[in-house]
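Aggregate trends can hide what the representation actually does to any particular protein. In the encoding step, the backbone of a single protein was reduced to a row of integers, each denoting a local shape. The record that follows shows the chain in one-letter code together with its fold in token form.

***
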Amino acid sequence: MDDLREILKKVSELMAGREVTTVDEIKRNAYRAMLSHFLSRHVSRDRMENLVSEVVESLCEVPASINSLHYSEKLEIENVAFRHIHTCKPTEEDLENAYEEYLKSRKLIDSIEIMMEVTDVFFNGYAIEDGLIRVYSKGKYKYGAFYSLIDDVGEDLEIHERVATSFDGEYVVVVPTENELTRFLRFFSRYSERVKKAGFKIWVVNVEERTIDPFIGYPRDFLLLKGFKNPRVATQINSLWRVQVEEMD
């Protein structure tokens, strides 16, 4: 119960000021909140999914903590079920913002299983331990993969730095490709030095092609390099980003 209470508190902080949401956004923020709470501690897949369900139930049905937001009302528009706080009368802007977050959240939720399959193939020959952080190990090498969106990685950067410090191995954040390359270039210009200093890596999965490429950082097991579609991507971005992002900020 203490774990759930702390995770609910973090989810509510992430969604502070948001009066309209969707279950998909709640789930996405539950993953982020669990990483913030557990850091590199092992959390089984079953435990993780149970906690996500309990977070959704608390925010949408029966609150499990006084720290929990409560989206008790339901509004369906064009097959999207929105949830909103009882005292809120959703405005057009509220719904537009909630729909934007819904699309981002669906992108992650729809991509996670494929990203796991792609990393499983990439780490062929490694033992797999499923969980909030998916752990791959082989001999002296050990990798922990967490699945997220590039924008969320920027917002949660301090958390990822703490995970990288505490994880007994190489920590990798795996994200799906985006329609706009500028999201990655902006991230690189703002955060790449912090990521490198913290010692973790960010790799990108093309969900449609089921391929993976390095964005920031390479594995110490050089035999893994052959698993990237284009192993030189991270080096190319590192050398070219200054020219491409001059006017982004």
